[in-house]
Amino acid sequence: MPNVALRSETDWDGWRQATRALVLASVPPSEVTWSVVGPATDLPSGTGSFTVSRALVALASLAIQARDQDRFGLLYGLVWRANAGDNPLASETDPDLLLARRLAFAVRAEAHRMRTHVRFLATEDRLLGWYAPAHFVLEANAQLLARRFPKAMFSLITPDGSAHWDGAELRFGTGLRQPEDDDTLLAWWNAHGAAVLDEATIGTSVPEAEDLDEAPRPPDRPAIGPVVLALATDPGLRTAVRQAVTCQRCALHIPATQTVFGEGPAGAAAMFIGEQPGDQEDIIGRPFVGPAGQLLDRAMEEAGIDRRTIYITNAVKHFKFAPRGTRRIHQSPSPEEIQICRFWLDVERVHLRLKLLVLMGASGARAVLGRPVAVTRERGRPFRLEDGQLAFITVHPSYLLRIPDEASKAREYQAFVRDLAMVRDLMEGG
Ligand code: URA
To answer: Quick one: 144 and 285 in the same domain?
Structure first.
């Protein structure tokens, strides 16, 4: 079974070459696996030629930028069928076509969102911006920005990689996980910017999101590798973050988009531990950024906790879900999965050595205590772990989101804020 190893998440050229060779050698989609980096088998050498409609190429060139692990095979299937005379574009209800269109639409929307949301800081020689795009749209957006503002030198940083325009050349380099604020982004740039620029390589040309109706320009070569750097000042933790990117300790990594590691400053006042990344966290690659995270943000603010001063993570670092149609339905991790992933939680605990652990919900509590925990009975009072570290159990914010009755929801939310106010006092040493 051929395995095609693309050179990067946006290796449009590699995907096109492989697709061409596989179709010509009559290799059906079910017999091909696709990966990024990883081991590759030699591509078969087929002879002859075939053409693909411009509309299908345009669709594929956008959808390939989606953060969806099955997209390469999906798009190969569309080309395969078109070549076999079963044109998927002929049916508006074709499920594969609908899926590819959904991906292309999401890419275009995200490219636009990134362009309108990224804020640039002025440094001595360039504009510096950071953003975490939900899809792989950095290259396309950097090309567009460079074309629109040819004289503005900029560096656009994302967790997947960074783009650097110096007025003549667009180069791509290492990315950065979320900085806590503008000052830490600037400090990171001052410390590492020269090295990042030094290692950056000349850019590729990927199809831009606005070009859906134009013939896409073929890219020269890929740019962004999978390297992700944590801002953590602790070098051990930074190494762990890198290693966790390829974690295969349990089967949850297979359907998940990516490992979602904890984040926060090294000298944080507390470590908050949830269950596992949700749908949005899985796509964006950061913990607690979806609905539960937003509720937590609000409750923290009301309790007087600044989220930028805490480290936040999960018991399990991959999203566990059951597919239902186009939706991915959350599934709780098993005790075994929590136990296996405890490896990474222990790494975080050992490297950060924070004085207080806040265990949110049954999975977060189980991960630390190693036993089933009745959260409602044990919540709301600090206690010491065997090693003397202070811990505090409270409910998980997702629990509050699931309460159907508004009055009970409001009551439970207030109880959660009261718990967090106690956590604040503990953080302040009270
Ligand atoms: N729920 C969690 O436990 N963690 C997240 O990161 C998001 C939702």
So the answer is: no
Q: Tell me, using a 6 A CB cutoff, whether residue 222 lines ligand 1.
A: no
Question: Ligand 1: does its nearest atom lie under 6 Å from the Cβ of 364?
Answer: no
Say if CB 426 and CB 269 are below 8 A apart: no
Q: Report if residue 224 sits inside a domain.
A: no
Instruction: Please tell me if the CB atom of residue 289 comes closer than 6 angstroms to any atom of ligand 1.
Output: no
Name the average pLDDT for the chain: 86
Domain ranges, residue 194: 118-212
The total domain count for the chain is 3
Within a domain: 51: yes
Q: What is the tens place of the pLDDT at every residue in 318-337?
A: 999 998 776 789 999 999 99
Over residues 195-240, the pLDDT tens digits come to 999 988 886 565 554 433 232 232 332 222 222 333 445 677 878 8
The alpha helices in 67-149, defined as continuous H runs, are: 71-83, 95-117, 138-148
How many A from CA of 293 to the centre of ligand 1? 7
- 285 touches ligand 1 (CB under 6 Å): no
Burial (CB count <10 Å: 0-12, 13-18, 19+), residue 329: exposed
In the reported structure, the alpha carbon of residue 165 is separated from the centroid of ligand 1 by a whole-number distance in angstroms of: 36
pTM above 0.70, yes or no: no
